Amino acid sequence: MTTVRRERQVRTAVAALLTVPFIIPFLMLISTAVRERDDFASAPGGLPASFTFQNIVNAWTEADLADGLRSSLITCVVACVVCCTTALAGAFWFRIHQGRVVGAMRWLLVAGYAVPTIAWLIPVLVILAQHDLTNNLVVLGIVNGVTSLPFALYLMHTFFNQVLSAELLEAATLDGAGILRTFGRIAVPLSLPALASTIALVFVWTFGDLIIAVTLLQDTSVQTMTLATASLSTREDLNIQGQAAASLVALVPMLLVFVGAQKALAKGFGGGSGK
Amino acid sequence: MTTAATTRSGAHRLSPRRRPRRLENGGFLNSGLLLLAPIVILEIAVFLLPLVYVLNRSFHDWQPGGVSVYVRFDNYSTLFAQAEFWEVVRNQLFFLLGLPIWVAAPLVLAYLLRENVSCAGLFRTIYFFPAVLSPAIVGLVFRSLLATDGPFNAALGTVGLGGLAQPWLTDATWVKPTVIVLMLWAGLGTGVLIFSAALAAVPDETFEAARIDGAGFWDELWHIAIPSVRATVVLWTMFQVMTIFLFMFSWIYVLTSGGPGLSSTTMDFSIYQKFVRFGFFGAAAAQSVVLVAMVIVVPIVIVVIPRAVRVVWRTVVQADRLDARVSP
Predict the structure, then answer these.
(1) What residues of B are in contact with residue A233 (Cβ under 8 Å)?
(2) Within this chain, do residues A28 and A77 fall inside the same structural domain, yes or no?
(3) pTM above 0.95, yes or no
């Protein structure tokens, strides 16, 4: 019995030790962002001896993060709506229809995940530019939503296969419900847990996207929060503390979604790890 | 008459609310293609058609908005003649060297967390943390932390390890290994989550039986855990390969801008620069096509080679065994 307890201690200690590389960078980040300039300059790797919001305030105004946050939220909402409605409907269709051809089609739609973003993004930019649709947050949101479609389809289809049993679908058909009514009355209400985790993922991905935003938003007057923050890396006038402060601010929305959606995420992933 | 009425009202009772059925009886609506159409149309419009377009443009001296002259394979031959292109390809392959550790680390960790650990869920959550953060922002975090005069090197000095301090992101030798370690950091938690789910599906008896036979941690991991989740190992390996070919842009853009020189430039970053910065449109199109081809070919090679090795190995071992059996 003691060997089991001892093994437990060793295992827990190893697992705890491995959390250090995940916690230290964030502590370093916070300490870099909130120290006064002299304090940081004298001992950049030491513990903070001062506290100031000045770096954060500077970053907020320098990088115009308030405007970025607003643009990001618009983009995220559009992306979530586009992705979730389309993936939900598609996943339900693939739950009803099965067979070799349909299976191959589903596989192709999920395989869209493996198409290199830059390869389709450049022609999309050219086409959008010809129709004067660049620097447009709604277009950015739609493109971001489509990017998340393959994974969302996969996630929701797996979920539907679990919760929509053949008996349930048959019962609905016997009651005279057509495919659209079965979708609206049965599938959509039952899909809420998967829908929540998909919304969380699409939000986080869209919020954190850089490649699409930097390509489709050529004009610096329209910027998402991630783009505005990432652009700081190319600016010489902002120091390490400014970059740290800006990234600290840009992390907050994603952390909020992560904390809020953690349960939904675990459920959507099948919860197999909840052992 | 009465029976018919009863049946009809019975049917009424079964279907909760009855609207005029005209709409649902329409062939198109009833087959539900309305549900399928949006996802198919959007994916074709955003993924497929642009790829066809870029393939076509790669055979032209592409001038967006202007006249593009058909040049056959000129873009490709120019591309393949550039030393820069091959350096980028070498970078991609170098990053693949991280593959063994990206696969092994989460697997071992998920196995460690499988049983007999306090707060396993909390640990999984902490490891998973980077997965929800934007690579662009996390890249910026590490850019400031790993700067030559930044907090990480300074902290090494504070604890007396100043000799280990390096220009992690600005030195051509150190930048690629640094990126590999950062990718491990970023992907570990997702891997732990996926392997944990796979291991949870393996019946406990399998492990107990091995333990009664006296198997230790590593024996059990090697002989029981890994073979039981082999499909997941292949899946995760593919996932990591795709990450290296598809999703490095944000990291490179923020961390190093591909530098120093081209020493950390990936294919996607290089294509982006060719198109947006330098205006080599035809070359960018050709390189895009090459990237798509790589994404198709490399995973096949990575799956096929180990399988071939295993087959050869098995044949050799079996031949040895036969020899051993025959000789005494």
Answers:
(1) 139-140, 143, 253-255, 257
(2) no
(3) no
